[in-house]
Amino acid sequence: MILTKDDVEKYIFAGTSPEIIASRKLAKENNMHVTGKGAREYLEKLDEYENNNQKILREKLMKDNKAVFSFLLRPLDKIFSAKGGSINYNLKEEEIQKVKDSVTEVADGLNIKRYLKKVVVQKYIIDPNGILFVDLDEFGDLSTTFEPTTKILWYKKRGNTVEALIFEGEEREEDTIKRKYYRVIDDKLDRIFVVEPKPNDTTGVKQVREVKRDRLTNFFGFVPAFIVGDIKNPNIDIFNSFISDINEEAKDLLHDVSINKIHKISQGYAKYWQRPEACTKCHGEGELKWEAVPGDGMWLEKVCESCGGAGYKQKVSPSDTMIVPVPEKDENDPAPNVAGYVNPSIEIWKKYDDNIKATRDYLFQVLWGTTFEQGGRNETATGRFIDVQPVQDRLRDISHTFSLMHQFILDCYGIITLRRKDYKSFVSYGTRYVSENPDEILKTLMEASRDKVSDVILHDMRAKYFFAEYQNDDVELAKKQKIARIEPFPNMSVTEVMGSEIIKEEDKLKKVYFVGWYCSLTDAELIMKTEDQLIEELNIFIKTKKVKDGTQQTA
After folding, report:
1. Nearest-CA neighbor of 208 among 217, 197, 200?
2. Longest dimension (CA), the chain
3. Helices H / strands E in the chain, number of each
4. pLDDT tens track for 91-103
5. Range 403-424 average pLDDT
6. Would the pLDDT of 15 be above 90?
7. What is the CA radius of gyration of the chain?
8. What's 117's DSSP letter?
9. Are 275 and 338 in contact (CB under 8 A)?
10. N or C: which end of the chain has fewer CB within 10 A?
11. What tens digit of pLDDT does each residue of 199-211 get?
């Protein structure tokens, strides 16, 4: 798409587009839940139930939803730890290395995938109508940024691609004249336009003028921007956030949590009480008397400063001893009902806490289509999903979006690095998500082994276990996968192998001594040596061992 000067003038004078305004409002709400910023502004006075003092106290002691949303969004990490996937550069080997070198640091010292994980995932949740933007400066250097909708005046989009883009204006004062500069990018040009007063005009009429000296050719051949959202709003041409469905309930949770905290602080202390003790200064009289002149019979009086005229102690020190008189013969003994504590109601606390937990679980179910339970030795951040399939379905959709973002950045860098406007790569993120904890997988694997299910099924379950156990340790995973491919007869026990009449004696020895040989290997050997080299070393190892009849195998 090519923008004419008239087009640019029209969009600038029209101001921020309605779609961008709606996008900013959505982003502000999402940001409040995810980062806590602006949460105090969203706490509204509960009319007829809360006075101004209570509202001020609640705002002062407010607790935001940041921790809850960190928990709710934790499964998104699996997008980047999933196994499988591929990157096809569609290039010769020497060109592939040039492109790889160009994307080792695309932003903040991070490569593409880590930048998407560390920075863009949160932006995808907060501001789904913001853009990934790849910029090329006058020196030919590339940089990648996320540009929020607060920095965008207008764009023309088709799906996630941007066909033309106008950034929000930047005000400057030059020679006492205020001007506003706008960056405008289309398929052909990267230009700067300025809004300024018309020359020799005193009526305040403004004009739009291109700053010709700042005009650049768009070397990409398209607008290097990608809109990160992927959930279409049915009522307006913007993207909804992944968390849009739970925004209203999350506001209720914000109220509930803050009210619960106020109750705990204001009503959570045990209250001490005791029977009044006579003031030690006025002896319970409430006032002090003394003769003006000793012996003249003229008495003066004043209120006791210690008790304020009450006749009993106003404050009691923890070190004070209360003297309880011995009751007379016909009197009731007041002890121990002379002092004690009134404990707060634990029941109301429990009700608040249960309600908050139930709301959190409900929000999780709305987002992911399932609930979860905690348990097992190696618990994941969310425990165990009751139904894995809905979670994986949602993750696949999001993985596809992030693979497109990765491909967009890679293509932009490839086009400039190789000086080829037609360059296209293909990126596909893995979708083998580890949604079960390894203890459960191992238990199922052991049961399947005892039941003698298909070897193909056992092979897949074993691979699944390794993925779960070492999902955050690629080196250890590679070692375990390599040794698993070498292990002889993995679905048979040593007894079964030794009792077989069709297995060769040499192969039986491999099964018997495999674990001993494996334990003799160093980490470096497992990492550096090929499978063929390790198999040859296993063969040498067993030749030094005795068979059951007592004969010696020699090399």
Report:
1. 197
2. 129
3. 19, 20
4. 888 899 999 999 9
5. 94
6. yes
7. 37
8. I
9. yes
10. C
11. 877 777 889 999 9
- Alpha carbon distances (Å) from 320 to 272, 277, 305, 323: 14, 11, 19, 10
Is it the case that residue 275 has pLDDT exceeding 90?
Answer: no
Q: How confident is the model at residue 154 (pLDDT cuts 50, 70, 90)?
A: very high
Distance of alpha carbon 160 from alpha carbon 124, whole angstroms: 13
Mean pLDDT in residue range 44-70: 70
Angle in degrees, CA 298, 301, 305, rounded to 5: 150
Task: Please choose, from the candidates 388, 301, 374, the residue with its C-alpha nearest in 3D space to the C-alpha of residue 75.
Answer: 388
8 A C-beta contact, residue 363 and residue 72: yes
Q: How far from 367 is each of 26, 240, 247, 250, CA to CA, in Å?
A: 17, 13, 11, 12
Place of tokens 């809905």: 390
pTM for the structure as a whole? 0.73
Amino acid at position 323, single letter: I
Residue 449 tokens, joined = 């082994």
With H, G, I as helix, E, B as strand and everything else as coil, classify residue 151: helix
Counting every residue written for the chain, the total comes to 555
Mind spelling out the 3-state secondary structure of 305-360? CCCCCCCECCCCCCCCCCCCCCCCCCCCCCCCCCEEEECCCHHHHHHHHHHHHHHH
What's the pLDDT at 204? Answer: 77
Nearest to 465 by CA among 450, 448, 452: 448
Query: Alpha-carbon distance 508 to 466, whole Å?
Result: 25
SS3 of residue 196 by DSSP = strand
Pick the closest to residue 443 from 475, 468, 414 (CA basis): 468
- Mapped onto helix, strand or coil, the DSSP state of residue 165 is strand
- Is the separation of the CB atoms in 36 and 140 below 8 Å? no
Q: What are phi and psi of 450, to 5 degrees?
A: -65, -35
Task: Please choose, from the candidates 409, 113, 408, 397, the residue with its C-alpha nearest in 3D space to the C-alpha of residue 232.
Answer: 397
Structure token digits, residue 472: 């955050």
| Contact status, residue 230 vs residue 398, Cβ threshold 8 Å | yes
| Axis-axis angle for helices 247-267, 18-35 (nearest 10) | 40
Token representation of residue 341 = 């504590």
**Rounded CA separation 191/185 (Å):** 6
CA distance 160 to 223: 12
Percent of the chain with pLDDT over 90: 36
Rounded distance between C-alpha atoms, residue 377 and residue 374, angstroms = 10
Residues 6+ apart with CB under 8 A from 183: 166, 167, 190, 191, 192
**Which residue do the tokens 């501001």 mark?**
127
